[in-house]
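Archive entry. Fields below.
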Amino acid sequence: MNLYQAVRDALSNAMMRDDTAVVFGEDVAFGGVFRCTMGLAEEFGRERVFNTPLSEQGIAGFGIGLASMGHTAIAEIQFADYIFPAFDQIVNEAAKFRYRSGGQFNAGSLTIRCPSMAVGHGGHYHSQSPEGFFLAAAGIKVVIPRSPIQAKGLLLASIRDPNPVIFMEPKILYRSAVEQVPVDDYQLPIGRAETLVSGSDVTLLSWGTPIYHCETAMHMLNSPPETLARHVPESLRSAKVELVDLRTILPWDVDAIVESVTRTGRLVIVHEAGRTGGVGAEISAEVQKRCFLKLDAPVKLVTGWDTPVPLAFEKFYTPDALRVLDALVETLSY
Amino acid sequence: MASLARARTALPRTRKIAPFVRTLQTAADSTQLHQDASHSEPFSVKLHEDSFRGYKTDAPSLDLEVTKDGLLKMYKQMALMRRMEQAADSLYRQKLIRGFCHLTIGQEAISVGMEQALTRQDNIISSYRTHPFAVLRGGTVVSLLGELLGRQCGISKGKGGSMHVFTESFQGGHGIVGAQVPLGAGLAFAAKYQEKPVATYTMYGDGASNQGQVFEAFNMAKLWNLPCVFVCENNKYGMGTSAERSSSNTEYYTRGDKIPGIQANGMDILAVVKAVQHTKDWVVSGNGPILLEFVTYRYGGHSMSDPGTTYRTREEVQRMRSTQDPIRGLQRYLEEWGLASEEELKRFDKDAKAQVDQAVEEAKASPLPEDNELWTDIYNKGSEPSYIRGREREEGHHF
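PREDICTED_STRUCTURE:
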């Protein structure tokens, strides 16, 4: 199963268990632009899987109203880039509904799915990673999976989480990531990072697509190809890198990251969005405060640049394995 | 914006008045008895023939059945609501209420008339000028004033403030202009999905009516035939801009494209009751959404920080107060139809004042929320992140 099939499988599981669950968004009734909802309308009926007008703000507000009446609302924003018209509804309505009504109403059963991150040629309006914009919206959760198994388990957990969740799916992985995904209903924990490779010399933290660049960079560090060999000192090639997938961006797993950095003394964070005001900045601020005396090197960020995602230079904008390798070398030899 | 508003006055204003179009009646006391008023039995009255206008649908009939008890109840409620808002006004001036505070003085006929015509199963969702709804639909004056004061006894535990008041049958209380309108479509969809025979009243003002999401919600509601009544409370000013200056089309009941609309006199509470009965029947019978515009007037400023006299004349406010006041309108019906004497009505006013005075004291006596309310209700209890950062180390909270 690849990632879009895993998402579809999760939606199907969710709708089967929960009669109040409805899936809606632009073009979802006939499968959606990435085929994530393919066949759902036929399976569950057009009353439960339906198209909306092109009105993101309307979709989000509609979903909040639906959710506040006890429905499980699973909305799709066609691209994460188009979540900004709905930003007001998400930040001011969904996130604060519980708080400002003193717990009387909430939009907890709302989940907003949106394809996110770069594909290499999406440009300004189809390749952004807007997760950082939601960091200050206390009341919502933001989840980003890295693979089909993760996507299904985390999406089911997001749908059932009693808080509104924004679920961003790295769209380049829809087809390229393939795993043996259980067809049963299962959930993975929200709010918990996962250590993919244990290590003791540096913590390498990422989420979504760049996880794979990190993995490549780790291999390059251990056995650099000839053309790069002179840039990778011999002494660093046996370094043990701890690779961590953050999975939930808000609220992020402070304890796990602090625990890891306390052991390794070094941290490299990789994300696609620009650096300023980004998730990496938030994490490094907290880590440098909590691990100040344990750090052997400054926290290193490998991110997109502080520009719009450029159409022509998208490959240059998104962090790749080389930039991650460079950051590892710099941090390890600090 | 202020300079822009001034610049505009210098421009020649072309106001086209079509001489043969009849305008809506906005007097508060133009309803006539149809038969002798009865003290015990329901009796029928006839609304002024210009109480309504219809768009792509017939205007509601002018016949309405009322009872003495119903009229008295509405009178008491309107008197109480006005007293309560006046108390809020004075608490705000004493700097006991902080933040924002939008009063409904002048518009009482709408909330009270709607409450009269609807059941608690019907949904009402509105913006930030909503104090009466919270009290009429399950709250108390104490809990409302307590919320304004930010006290524990508040209807949202003191965490919402003036704009964010909710009860089980009133879905709030939303501070962002127009943002509640798509939510209303969602409420209506849920009601339809669950096959409940209820109407959803989604309310907004003439100012919010120009928000893009309002039209998005209209479209969805019509597309899916939702049992939703979109109510535009046209109080003639969106903050400090008159309707004519903000809207290309000020006939708000005609702005739903394919959705039919009704314009109603929002100052005569009997016209409000009739319009709400009519629109509820309309949506519950499966006719899809309908627009309902109440032409009304607010006596005060947009909020407490607006004196309300920079963009309209004092004479205009005074004229509305003295000629079209909804409470005085109903008072006239009760007196002229021989249902209550002036003394009785004065006693009701006194009772309302006493009730509000007592509520003010009770609300003031209620303590401020506990510190830990800062970090409760952000996430669902039991699924919070382990740590939420406060201003300082020791204020941070571990769940």
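CURATOR_NOTE: Chain B touches chain A through 50 residues (CB under 8 Å).
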